[in-house]
Sequence to fold (116 residues):
Amino acid sequence: MSIRRIGAGARMSKAVVHGNTVYLAGQVADASKGASVAEQTQEIVNIIDALLAEAGSDKTKILSATIYLADISTFPQMNAVWDTWVAQGHTPARATVEAKLAAPEYTVEIAVIAAI
Fold:
């Protein structure tokens, strides 16, 4: 079975396709880093949409999502964006945790696994 890497860099790939599954690395909001949790979440879900499309998938095929928040008290702000984006009737398994992220300007990171 082949492995296809999307956005491969020296340290990691943005996504990896293996068989009928695409694994997205944790995505952060580079353009809106330092902005609100809602703005960063919106940028991230847009990135996820683009990566899934490049892999031949879409948000209706997300199997699982892991969301990392720098401050768990921002859970409602993230959820407000997530709830308008996620495909109703196709909600994935999901975990949300508080974690120290790579840089203080990042307040949200989201990783997903989806079917093709």
